[in-house]
Amino acid sequence: xxxxxxxxxxxxxxVFLIALLGLTLMMIxxxxxxxxxxxxxPLAQTVRLIPYILPExxxxxxxxxxxxxxxxxYARMSGAxxxxxxxxxxxxxxxxxxxxxxxAFLVSLVAVWLNDLAASWGRNNMQRVALEAVEDxxxxxxxxxxxxxxxxxxxxVERVEGQRLLNVVVELQxxxxxxGTIITAKEAEIRVNRAEGVLELWLRDGEIDVGGKVKxxxxxxx
Length: 222
Description:
The chain is α+β, with helices and mostly antiparallel strands. The protein is built from five helices and seven strands.
């Protein structure tokens, strides 16, 4: 590779890396704040999101910063008449372009890989961390206050032993004409279903009371 192509490639790479670092850090901070606010995550779980939010961030910042780097470098070269000087030396202007063309093609392959990584690995693990955070928050509140409530349901317990909830009362809010439901059980556990991406409440030896009209007893885990 000649001096001119190396010079262009070095200038574009320098601006690209600096812009990529700054923009990626800014977007990671914004993404973490939004995710923490949306999921009500504590600081420890928010920090755990950083490796998983990184591919999602890079797939957006890499194309933007590459465009910014090319625009900045070529605009500066044009303003300093470096293109005219290269042509005056008998060097084809393509010597200024082909290194960036090849570099942009390689970067585009990385961007495609990042897009796939963000969809298949990053988002799934972000959801897993959020679910585990909800599980930890729920157990913590039940241990300290013996009650955990949301606009849709409330859980009350007599005591918590490890992961076991003893003498549990679950109140499900009714919607519209649908009556509320009260579930009582001698024992319960909160489990994360990673395959389905949901938080499950398993109950044993209890009763389901639907609006005081229908009652169903269950002896085993449900």
